Amino acid sequence: MGSNGQVTGAPSAQLAVDEFLKAVNAKDLQAMSTVFGTKDGPARETMDRTELEKREVILACYFAHDSARVLGESAGLGGHREVRIELKKGNLTRETTFYAIKGPGGRWYVDNMDIASVRDFCGNPGTSTRRQ
């Protein structure tokens, strides 16, 4: 449980990624911070708040999507689970990997992700045909 009594993390690696992606699309930094973390728990309890919010805003830009589909999950390094996701935004389709780790209370947290594979999502207007 978080310091405010709210349960953080998710019961599985895939659910942590799913919750993270839902929070990204809702632009809900609070919800992102409940499943973004490390083996020590949610980032909002271990990171400077301003730094965390800056990071979340950047992640929200890169990972905002129209649809997401789990492609698979495998064991990663150091106890991580690697969750492969196909993200679609506008006419772009990209595969990316999220890295989840088990934290306190057996709850799972997203602690890293492959931003390089979705770098063209940020600043892409999606289905909009607006010209610069």
Averaged pLDDT, please? 90
Assembly of the depicted chains: single chain
In angstroms, what separates the terminal alpha carbons? 46 Å
Count of DSSP H/I helices = 4
| Helix-strand topology string | HHEEHHEEEE
Number of domains: 1
Largest beta-sheet details: 4 strands, antiparallel
Read across the widest sheet, the strand sequence of neighbours is 3-4-5-6
For the secondary structure, the number of strands is 6
DSSP strand content: 25-35%
Please write the CATH class name. Alpha Beta
Going by helix content, strand content and strand pairing, the class is alpha+beta
> Which residue ranges are poorly predicted, with pLDDT under 50 across at least 5 consecutive positions?
127-132
What is the percent of helical residues? 25-40%
* CATH architecture term: Roll
Task: Characterise the protein shown here.
- This protein is α+β, with helices and mostly antiparallel strands.
- The protein has four helices and six strands, in the order H-H-E-E-H-H-E-E-E-E.
- Strand 4 and strand 5 form a beta hairpin.
- The protein is globular, with a radius of gyration of 15 Å.
- The chain starts with 12 loop residues before the first helix and ends in a 19-residue tail after the last strand.
Write the layout of secondary structure elements.
Blueprint (H helix, E strand, L loop, with lengths): L12 H13 L3 H7 L1 E2 L2 E2 H4 L2 H15 L3 E9 L5 E9 L2 E11 L5 E6 L19
Antiparallel strand pairs: 1-2, 3-4, 4-5, 5-6
Helix pairs in contact: 1-2, 1-4
